[in-house]
Write a structure and sequence with these properties.
Length: 604
């Protein structure tokens, strides 16, 4: 038995033949809870995802009824207010799985793929229905099932594997979940065309025929997701074409069927020479896409990671999200904790999302996606508490202004039978978890001090002399990169108000200080401490807080098997945090030669 926010709902029936639509499923879910009083469902197709709840009548479109039913059930079980009326902020609320057909999951920390094994589709329908229910219960409606790095034989998803794709789409349809697939830009080459050039008529024709074939099998496919010219993936640059030309090629093939083309903007030079200071990786996405604004077809969505680097524990908002005026945008978040503790260390993301939406007006983006943290582990998420990130993401995608405390307390109340005091202990632990992780890892917005490739644990110079563009350039005097006009000029990509916020080290938010500025170790911070002392203090504090977190979790009566998993991971986190503390402090002590003012143990 695994616990998550659906634990208090009865299991889904094994025979799903009657539950063949969101409407039917909504009625079934409600009947499990409200057999006496009852809710009546009133289907108003044009309401779509929206719903209203008045006098025990839930009205909405097919999916609206389902979301209304889950809102009522969540309210009943958690005490959260049941809205009288609700509509999602974004129509596409997407989970991006990075699953490979050999069963591995790129950056997956919850076991092997839920969909694939041995180069074919291989899944337990009951578990995938549970996934569908998890998604629908928090309003998520698009599931991209395969890795953006498309490896063989996933290219076959648009060909010989279409019948399997179609069967999977059938399985998810009652949950209001539509599938999406990641496609390889060079696919025409596989079909024996001599080019994949987006301006080539034969290539255009080929994609149109493929799209027609795909939509015949899966008429409600949400669309394609593409990673092109990024980290070795093929793309339009091979043919001297722009990313607008590349994206429009696929968008035009999808257009007759109502599909969208989601094009990722994670494009940068990953073969940089570390000696070359003229390139600054965070500038890359803006430089590539800003000049193309206005050139994309209307069913293209550009998907942009929240920060200009790559899902570090703290980054400023990607300036691309604030600059494109004429192109629909999707925000991409990462639930998989690649750089944030890999579902071993506790890391509740809601507070981080809140910060993102402080800078990102909700109407600047049209869709929202998150890289999945799912896997075949019994609890789906590796760490039982990582389920809260998936749950919270759904609520955030529905309403980006959702309050982190509300989301997390609702999740706790749905998941565990705790006393109010126990629930509060868990809530506070989760709310603090991101800052704690941040304190013991790379300091003040620097990022990237993780072990290369695995991305777990410290290695301050692991990426320093490498080709990935992720440098701190620490020497015996100073650390960080000046990204103001006097430095790389990255700052000029922001609107003026943000330029003003980050421009001056004296007023720049301290948690981003070393992202924007290069500073000497004896630089005096706002509270009078030197930069080096702040680094030491944060690392001692972060490691101590990780140990406190473990203690708090040990005192809570988690049911088994959650308890065993949570405590084993908490112990690993405590050890990881102590390791980070010592490695980072020693790294800076050796460089700077400046001792800790409080004379704590820093290794020579
Ligand atoms: C990160 C991650 C890769 C992934 C890439 C992406 O760099 O380490 O595994 O492929 O992001 O977002 O495409």
């Amino acid at each position: 038995m695994h616990y998550n926010w659906l634990a208090k709902l009865p299991p889904l029936p094994e025979d799903f033949s009657q539950l063949d639509s969101p409407h039917a499923l909504a009625a079934w879910e409600l009947s499990q809870f409200f057999s006496e009083k009852g809710y009546h469902l009133e289907l108003i197709p044009e309401m779509g995802d929206r719903f209203q709840i008045h006098n025990n009548i839930i009205s909405g479109g097919e999916t609206g009824l389902l979301y209304g039913a889950y809102a009522a059930i969540r309210g009943l079980l958690s005490g959260a207010p049941i809205p009288e009326e609700s509509a999602p902020c974004y129509s596409l609320r997407m989970i991006n799985c990075w699953d490979n057909m050999d069963g591995t999951v790129e950056r997956g920390y919850a076991g092997r793929s839920l969909f694939f094994e041995g180069d074919q589709f291989a899944y337990d329908p009951a578990r995938l229905r549970h996934l569908g229910r998890m998604m629908a219960s928090v309003g998520l409606n698009v599931l991209c099932i395969n890795n953006v790095n498309v490896h063989e034989p996933a290219q076959g998803l648009l060909g010989e594997l279409l019948p399997d794709l179609s069967a999977l789409a059938d399985l998810f349809r009652p949950f209001g979940v539509r599938l999406m697939v990641s496609v390889d830009f060079s696919l025409p080459l596989r079909a024996d065309l001599s080019t994949a050039d987006p301006l080539d008529a034969a290539v255009q024709d080929w994609w149109s025929r493929v799209a027609a074939l795909v939509y015949r099998e899966v008429p409600d496919l949400a669309g394609f997701l593409v990673k092109a010219d990024s980290e070795g993936r093929p793309g339009p640059f091979t043919y001297g074409r722009s990313h607008a030309e590349g994206a429009n090629l696929l968008a035009r093939a999808l257009k007759p069927f109502g599909g969208v083309l989601v094009w990722r903007c994670f494009v940068y030079n990953c073969k940089q020479d570390w000696r070359d200071t003229s390139i600054d990786r965070p500038k890359a996405a803006y430089e590539t896409y800003q000049p193309l604004d206005g050139q994309f077809d209307d069913n293209v969505i550009l998907q942009v990671k929240n920060g200009p680097f790559d899902f570090q524990v703290r980054e400023p908002l990607s300036p691309l999200l604030l600059s494109l005026e004429k192109t629909p945008l999707a925000l991409e978040l990462q639930l998989a904790q690649e750089y944030t503790g890999q579902q071993i260390d506790l890391y509740a993301m809601a507070p981080m999302w809140q910060e993102i939406f402080e800078d990102l007006p909700t109407n600047r983006i049209q869709a929202i996606a998150a890289v999945s943290n799912l896997g075949r582990d019994e609890n789906y998420f590796g760490h039982p508490l990582a389920a809260a990130n998936f749950f919270g993401f759904g609520l955030l995608a529905w309403n980006p202004k959702a309050d982190p405390t509300d989301m997390l307390s609702q999740w706790i109340r749905l998941t565990y039978d705790f006393t109010p005091q126990q629930a509060e202990t868990l809530l506070q632990s989760m709310l603090r978890s991101r800052r704690i992780y941040e304190r013991y890892t790379a300091p003040l917005g620097l990022g990237w001090m993780i072990t290369p490739h695995s991305h777990y644990g410290p290695n301050p110079s692991g990426y320093e002399y490498d080709a990935w563009g992720t440098y701190h350039r620490a020497n015996h005097l100073a650390v960080g990169i000046d990204r103001t006009a006097a430095g790389t000029g990255y700052l000029s990509q922001y609107p003026e108000a943000l330029q003003a916020r980050y421009q001056d080290p004296a007023t720049c938010p301290e948690l981003l200080l070393l992202f924007f500025h290069r500073l000497p170790y004896d630089y005096v911070m706002q509270d009078g401490r030197t930069l080096i002392q702040r680094i030491y203090d944060d690392h001692f504090l972060g490691a101590q807080e990780a140990a406190e977190l473990e203690k708090a979790l040990r005192a809570l009566p988690f049911p088994e098997p959650d308890r065993l998993v949570i405590l084993a991971r908490a112990a690993k986190q405590t050890a990881n945090a102590a390791n980070w503390r010592d490695v980072i402090n020693t790294f800076f002590y050796r460089l700077s030669g400046i001792p800790d003012q409080k004379d704590r143990k820093i290794y020579e």
